[in-house]
Amino acid sequence: MRQLWRNHQGDIRMILTLIVLWWVFFWRIFTPVADNQVSLVEGDFSDQFVTFGAYQYQRWSRGEVPLWNPYNNGGLPFIADTQAAVFYPPRLLTIALSKLSGAGWTYGALAIEMTFHVLFCTLAMYGFMRRLTKGQKGTRIGAFVSAVIIGYGGYMTGYPPLQLALLEAAVWLPLGLLGILEATREAKIRPVWLIFAGFALGLSWMAGHPQTSFFATYLMVGFLAYRLFMNNAPNKYLQILWTVALMGAVTFGITAVQFLPGIEYLSRTVRAGLSFEDKGNGFPFYDVIQVFFPHVISQWSPLYIGIIGFALAILGLISRERDRWFWLVALLLALGLSFGARSGLFHALFHFMPGLYFFRGQERAAFVIAYAGAILAGLGVVMLYNTAEKADWRASRVVVGALWAGSQTIAGLTLIEWMNNPDGTTALMSASFFSLLVITPFAVLLLTDRDNIPNWAWVLPILLAFELFSVNIDRREVYQILPPDRQPIMQEPPLVTQAKYDAGVFRVDGQYVDGELGIYGYGNSGSLYQLQDIRGISPLFLDSAYSIIQLGTPFEKVWEVFAVKYIFTDAEELPAPSQLIGRDYPHFKTLNLHQLTDPRPFAMLMYRYEVISDDKSARARLNSDNFNPRDVLIIDQPPPFVLPDAPPEGGIAEITVYTPEYIQVRVNTPENALLSVALVDYPGWRAEIDGQPIETYRAYSALTAIPVQAGEHVVTLTYNPTSYQFGAIISLITWLGCGGLGLFLMIKSVLSKKDITVAETQ
After folding, report:
1. pLDDT tens digits for 639-674?
2. Residues pairing with 687 in the sheet
3. Domain spans of the chain?
4. What is this structure's pTM?
């Protein structure tokens, strides 16, 4: 331990300082004093991630793999919903610790998971920058500055904590870049480090935000190709090919258990039908002002790295570090993409950049801008330490002096404007004077001789931390003054409890309530309260179900085919016979609970049918005024036998077992029949009658039907998709391989150190 301290005391001090800064930034999440506690604001965090996390906890804590989720969107393949992150290791750790603590699933558990991801990101960024600037002066402070910017700049402290999958996918980039850096440090490629990089990228994909991981993939592949190209090795193009293939193979193997089901699902969701206009949204051009004036013209400022960080990034560009050009190009390309369809670059790349057309919200390319800016700022610090040339020193003074003069000018102009219009310019004046306050000490320090840099450079990270913490800590857009255990969503509402008294198998409709979707307006709260809701806010919604639930099918027919029994709504009357059985006043709004008088059973026998193979035509027939879905079943192909002309009496379909991935129905019918099940039709569900496989039919363009011959039978439906089975095998092999390789290298390192110790003592 003493030797470790002697050899690495500078790095240990920096790491401990990063940990202290992390605690200072998030102390209100950790404090046990209820009056001082904050929690992440409700919205995507509560309605998407806390609710899905609750379902994961419920299933994993019982030793079950949550492949299917019946509680939202009328049912969805949970393993395939990317934001569920079913097998993401840190989420599994959070679930395990929540179980071991005895506290169960809590709102705060997920917030703590978020904070540890930020800490990990800063430490990984520090490690990457230390290795990138290896052998140069000022490398520790430069790495520290990069870590502080990426951890506490506008990007990581804005909307990513609330859109948790985005943040958790983003934090693995420094680890992946470190692997590429070490793999290409010498002319001879080191494949072990490429495996390391692929592993880190795989964890990013498992975190559940494909768009962020998509950007990370392109960035890492570009960085790898750039490093190999600049090394001038023979057969460089062949090297690029096999190294990218190796890294990609590991990434795919790590995430296959989620990736294969996800690809299968994506092509069947509403996202597959989005137009160019839907995918072309991004920053307005004026949003670049947030680089200097955060939270003035927009709620979020992901481009903000502080004026100190901006100045250092400019210095990084005029440094002599070879890799600066790569990060400049990456930053400019990402900035061009972030404007979406407003930018010609997006139009140019839309059809030629594989994968780009899958995503909307192009402003999320700010992820790349934030990392590139942080890295360039770290290089700028190193540049200050290594200004051997007078020209470099003069250039540094010019850059910072120009920023100081510009800040002074803008502060003066905003002061004049504020005197004429105090209400409209207060925020801008405050931001401009704060920038002037922060940049002034930096400008003054640069008036000293360059030989004195080591004596004052430590001031830079202090100024930077002061600036970023002052702007971004404890913002009301992200944190609310409310202990996490008092969040309303975590208290089961009375109408939910009332509906759960019903022990039958049914669905509910958590309708829009004053513009909010889901039970009590809490998005995916069906997963939290364990009520099977046909609504939900997961961005991936099965297109067939969505087209019925959300796109104009009359409510009474939606409720019929999806076996809805209870409706949460602010409406006093419904378009179907019902009874008002409860009323509540959440958030001072009226919420009613209606029970349908004659709800459709989840499984029922039907004897009349129409064959319509085209989904669009089937929906049109379902929506027609002269069609009654209680009397007639729409199926996509003819049954294999003749059905009676009139429905017989005495047919029974009784659900005897109902779990998320397994349904058992006891059927007794005097005539051949069709068993209609209010289960969405989706690959991976397999039906059996008396233990023999049987083909399922597509009913009403979205649901399931099974042909049943006369007599008494046991019908089972099991969800165990082939995509999951293959993906699990691939991932298991990859994880075991990576784990075995890591163990081998660890043992080899220990034995090597022992040999050295023995040799020294002889």
Report:
1. 999 999 888 988 899 999 999 999 999 999 999 999
2. 694, 717
3. 2-38+119-386+448-478, 603-720
4. 0.93
